[in-house]
Structures are given as C-alpha cells and as structure tokens.
C-alpha cells in the first residue's frame, strides 16, 4: 500500500485567518501534501480562554475552508476533551498512532513562533518519535533560537529532502519556504474591539460570522 503523509495543523484558531490558511496551502504545494487537517485545540477551564466558544471557533473553521478543499477538520482534541485537561499535542499524536499504526507518515505543521516556543510543550523532545514537524515562516520571529537544547535538536533532525518526508513515517524537521503573512489572531481581536476592519485578513464568511455574532467586541 502506498504511504500517505497525513498533515495535522493544530491551533486555537480564535479566529482562523489567512496567516493560517495561505502558508499552509503554499506548504502543501511545496512538499506535495494532498490534504491538511486543521486540529482545533481544547483549552481547559483554568487556562486563559479563547474569546470565542469552541463551537464558534469550529463554525468559523467550517466557513473558512468552504472554498479550500485541501482542508478538513480533525475534531479529536475538542470531542475527546476532558474538562480539566489541556490537549497536549504529544497525546494527540500518540492517539493517532494507536489508531493508524506506525507505518503511515504523519506530520505536524507549526509556525516559526511555535517552534521557538517548543521547549514549553509537554514532552516536546519526543514529538519526532511520532511525526515530522513542518515549519512555516512567520514575520517578526527569528530564524534561529538562542536555546542551546532546541538548537541542537533542530540541527540533528533538520532535512531539506522532501522525498524523505514521504518515505519515513516520522523523525524530521522541515523548514518550508512559505509566504510571510503578517497576521495574528491577537491583533485581529484587538482591531475588531477597536472597531477597525479586518476584512482582508480572513475569509469573507468568517468576517461576516464575527459581525453577526458580535465576536471580539464587534
Ligand atoms: P494568537 O495571536 O491568539 O496567539 P495565532 O494567530 O498565533 O493566535 P494560533 O491559532 O495560535 O494563531 O496558531 C496556530 C498555528 O498557526 C501555530 O503553529 C502558529 O505558529 C501558526 N500561525 C499563526 N499565524 C501564523 C502566521 N501569520 N504565519 C505563520 N504561521 C502562523
């Protein structure tokens, strides 16, 4: 059976915006991904909450991907959510492996900011036992890290070989040459609350949804 490289793109998506969508689409083209699953995360009650509810974040994801058949939504973190537990990426990857076995390829997509922040993630050094990491460029974030452990870990696992990502099931870090989109959900929420338009930063139907539901102070 041919190997399929499944790609998961995790995030809070509060709201989803073109800074998520456009780099992910470019990444798919660059490394020949047939499909990307957006993976909205669960945030437990004791953590700072997203401003939109889980069902609103999900509704916006559904609207955002209507015109982009390359995307689907993976509901596992929000449906299997335990009220008091965060959705750790490592647990999601383990669950995926339990369901799909070890021979299929799995990749997890991250922005450069998230890569720099990786040492704060639960069991981050074991992530590559389960997946590849695909890194999208993000303006405003350094290309290199000052963290010596992260630096060494990246160096040990980095590859430019796209074929390798498809041949091996896990274990590599790939830095993609994706477009720089200077957009963040935090900035969108702030702009909306100060009554500024963000129409060009996200799909029209997501913008309309935000207006109709008066999200983020709209
Ligand atoms: P916030 O501003 O609330 O922190 P965000 O815009 O960073 O949100 P998230 O949902 O937290 O969005 O991000 C999900 C993933 O998308 C992360 O891996 C993040 O690095 C990546 N990402 C978000 N915005 C961009 C962007 N403009 N360019 C590249 N990657 C991005």
SSE inventory with pairings:
Elements: E1 5-11, H1 18-31, E2 36-40, H2 54-65, E3 71-73, H3 76-79, H4 89-100, E4 105-111, H5 112-116, E5 132-136, H6 148-157, H7 162-167, E6 173-175, H8 185-193, H9 204-212
Parallel strand pairs: 1-2, 1-4, 2-3, 4-5, 5-6
Bound molecules: adenosine-5'-triphosphate.
Which labels suit this protein?
218 residues, alpha/beta, Rossmann fold, 6-stranded parallel beta sheet, 9 helices, binds adenosine-5'-triphosphate
Task: Give a description of the structure.
Helix 2 (54-65) runs antiparallel to helix 9 (204-212). The longest helix has 14 residues, at 18-31. The relative contact order is 0.20. The chain has nine helices and six strands; from the N terminus they run βαβαβααβαβααβαα. The chain has one domain: HUPs (Rossmann fold, 3-Layer(aba) Sandwich), CATH 3.40.50.620. Strand 2, helix 2 (54-65) and strand 3 form a beta-alpha-beta unit. The chain has helices spanning 18-31, 54-65, 76-79, 89-100, 112-116, 148-157, 162-167, 185-193, 204-212; strands spanning 5-11, 36-40, 71-73, 105-111, 132-136, 173-175. It binds adenosine-5'-triphosphate (ATP).
Characterize this entry briefly.
The chain is α/β, with parallel strands linked by helices.
Low-confidence stretches are none
Assign a percent range to the helix content: 25-40%
| N-to-C series of helices and strands | EHEHEHHEHEHHEHH
CATH class: Alpha Beta
Shape: globular
Q: Cα distance, first to last residue?
A: 50 Å
Strand order of the largest sheet: 3-2-1-4-5-6
The CATH superfamily is identified as HUPs
Radius of gyration, rounded? 17 Å
Q: Count the E strands.
A: 6
The structural domain count equals 1
Give the CATH topology.
Rossmann fold
Largest sheet features: 6 strands, parallel
Are any ligands bound, and if so which?
adenosine-5'-triphosphate
CATH architecture: 3-Layer(aba) Sandwich
Provide the residue-averaged pLDDT.
Answer: 94
The computed structural class is alpha/beta
């Amino acid at each position: 059976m041919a190997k399929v490289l499944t790609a998961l793109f995790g995030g809070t998506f509060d709201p989803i915006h073109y800074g998520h969508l456009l780099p992910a689409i470019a990444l798919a083209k660059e490394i020949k991904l047939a499909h990307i699953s957006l993976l909205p995360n669960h945030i437990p009650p004791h953590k700072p909450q997203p401003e939109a509810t889980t069902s609103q974040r999900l509704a916006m994801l559904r609207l955002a991907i209507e015109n982009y058949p390359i995307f689907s939504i993976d509901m596992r973190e929000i449906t299997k959510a335990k009220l008091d537990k965060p959705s750790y990426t490592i647990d999601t990857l383990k669950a995926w492996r339990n369901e799909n076995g070890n021979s299929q390829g799995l990749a997890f997509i991250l922005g450069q900011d998230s890569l720099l922040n990786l040492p704060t993630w639960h069991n981050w050094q074991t992530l590559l036992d389960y997946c590849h990491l695909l890194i999208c460029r993000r303006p405003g974030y350094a290309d290199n890290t000052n963290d010596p452990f992260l630096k060494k870990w990246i160096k040990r696992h980095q590859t430019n070989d796209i074929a390798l990502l498809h041949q091996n099931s896990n274990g590599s870090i790939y830095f993609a040459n994706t477009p720089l989109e200077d957009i963040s959900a935090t900035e969108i929420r702030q702009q909306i609350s100060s009554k500024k338009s963000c129409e060009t930063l996200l799909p029209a139907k997501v913008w309309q949804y935000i207006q109709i539901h008066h999200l983020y102070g709209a």
